[in-house]
Fold Lanosterol 14-alpha-demethylase.
Amino acid sequence: MGLFVEIQNQLVAATGLPAQKLYLYAALFLVTAIFLLLQRGQKQVNGKLPPHVPSPIPWFGNAVAYGIQPVKFLEKCREQYGDMFTFTMIGRKMTFALGPEGNHFLFNVKLAHATAEGAYDKLTVPVFGEGVVYDVENSIFMEQKKFVKDALTTTAFRTYIPIIRKEAQDFFKSWADQSDKFELFPEMAELTIRTASHCLMGKEIREQLHQQANVAQLYHHLDQGFQPINVFIRNLPLPNYWNRDKANKTMTELFLRILKNRRASGTENQHDVLESLMNSTYRDGSRMTDTDVAHMMIATLMAGQHTSSTTVSWILFELANNPHVIPELIKEQSEVLTGKPDTPISDLPDFDYDQLRKMPLLECVMKETLRLHPPIHTVMRLVVKDLEYKGYTIPAGHFICGSQAVSQMDPTRYPEPEKFDPWRHMGSEEGSGEWTINGVDIAQKSAKSHFLPFGAGRHRCIGEAFAYIQIKTIIATFLREFEHDLLKNDKGENIFPPMDFTSLIVMPQKPSYISYRRRK
């Protein structure tokens, strides 16, 4: 019964339906699925197929086992079948290629054989809007990514540090001086969207966004569109889908008004992402429409807000669970900023971009948190033309998938992989490095690595460098302001939040609490 209740709760959360209506829809869905399964012919494939993971449930396959604990499920399959195997999930064939070589294969597969657009368009287009990201050809999306990346320069980053720090300081001032039970994630979600909107769109637009009383609710409704089932099913007659579509329409109208106001005010030289998108030109000489710019801004803010708020929360949970690391982080700030290891926190000066880059332990804490809690556990592509890998044929129609979450827990690369040990990354360049988009070179960048929290190849996250400065600045500021702990259970043990896999972004299971006290 426990498993049944868990599945029911996840479906209620994903659909927004009460349990009674959910059963009716499920029955209709099952009848339809069985009909389609019986009607479907089996394609003949020349070549050796990867091992298939059996399931007693037709069509649904291993959706439940994978959906509840995907990393454990994949690790179990890997033990039995090796780095390559296929399982059925909601009528789709999911072929996984694991490990560093599997990562390299997936992230650099040729566009003629497999596409991200085919894998994610049902999920992203309703949330972000049409005309951007996975609703356009890959070559157009690469140009759109370059428009955003052009605004994320080192010069811009130098101006972002004081903005993020001031936003964090002002936000923390609004908290009570202490709390014995404080729900962390919603607060970090609010702070990251404030800092991202201020940096990427400017102060006046950040204020316009947050003067809208319903913006938080709109973000929530768009969030509900990021459910795993939406990778396969774009629309269902359910409340969460209706709310998602209304939220996209309202957010698009809001950004269109922002564009109109910026043009009318004659504001120039903002050097932010919005200005870059407004002024950019495609290689064929055409420009983005205002609607496309609005949709790209939704995509930029939504994608960055999810991963950053989740990572900030996980870092603070891990530090509370490993309190011996916190004094070392404070000591690092003191040494970098004053040349002494024991300067009182109240006497520490503000830090800038160059000083932040000289805090390796802080960066290692972020890397170790991303290793243990990658925001995205699975990456997939839709196979459009049969392809070969390690002697196996992966037929068109399959989804070829990889999981950094599995390779990042490999004990042969990371001894005691479940242990939080930031020092294991000290001196390592794994997962680091600047790069530029030119449509060719980035696709050749090696992804043969265990550690790829921001992806690799042509779809590597363009916001990686911004995420590092945003998250490190927030954490460094928080540690100056507060002491914090995890709550305890009846046995006096720390209550560390489990990972919630019901959304595509792996968040701390809600609600998750800390206690905190403002430093004197």
Remarks:
- The domain at 42-518 is CATH 1.10.630.10 (Cytochrome p450).
- Confidence is low (pLDDT under 50) at residues 38-42, 433-444.
- The two ends are 50 Å apart (CA to CA).
